[in-house]
Amino acid sequence: MSGMNGIWGNMNTNNVSYLFGSSTRTNTAGGNMLGIDLAEYSSITRGSYSKLIKAYYAKYGNTKKATQDLASDNDTTDQRMNIKSYAEDLNKAANTLMQKGKDSVFNKVETKDETTGVTGKEYDTDKIYKAVNGLVESYNKYIKKAGNSTDNSVLRQAVNMVQNTSVNSRLLGKIGIKVGADNTLSIDEETFKKADMSTVQSLFSGKDSYGGQIQAAASKTYQSVNNSFGNRNSYTAAGTLGNYSTGNILDRLL
Q1: Degrees, nearest 5: CA angle 61-55-30
Q2: Is the separation of the CB atoms in 181 and 175 below 8 Å?
Q3: Read out DSSP for 37-70?
Q4: What's the pTM?
Q5: Whose CA is closest to 95, among 87, 166, 22?
Q6: Tens of pLDDT, residues 220-238
Q7: Cα dihedral sign for 193, 196, 197, 199?
Q8: Contact 183, 219 (CB under 8 A)
């Protein structure tokens, strides 16, 4: 899949590539209020963000979305419920791969060579494949549903996911995961099980890993949609329940 730079290059006006920068960046003169960068807020309200989304989906396959007005939140209750459900499933799938200690799918198990009788410890590739395949399936359902949303906060997290996937596409390819033209993932079981499991672990284990970034985006989507229903509790990036944050409430108004 082509990188995101093509979009930035095509946006001759209202360059908004910084919208998808690290959340830990230094605040600019735009200031920061209640967790929202005011310069970022201004860019979104001017319509730059909407233009970015339209350009993105026009280029990467979702042409239906390119014809819609993305500045308003017109998702039906059923649509939001589906997005919330898919975000929750993706959050849980990513969390399965990020478990530590005795619950980690990357714990090695004892094996025995039937011919020589030699015992040793190896990764349980069947267990790891099942967990990664579960994430791939949940990811695809989420991307398809989120890509048809008119909610800016949902679209933003979907683009973040696709961007992170693009950045990691080379490593994903090494373990048998390919990125399709429609931004969905496919996994080849044979290639995956022959891959270096330490590479798989580095991709999906840890909050700063690819899997961790996917979980964080899914969690933010869940929280945003959940807040729209007036629910107080929501999932955090760690897979636990947390409360409203003022920034997330205001994000719904962008």
Answers
A1: 140
A2: no
A3: EHHHHHHHHTTHHHHHHHHHHHHTT-HHHHTS-T
A4: 0.64
A5: 87
A6: 999 988 887 775 454 454 5
A7: negative
A8: no
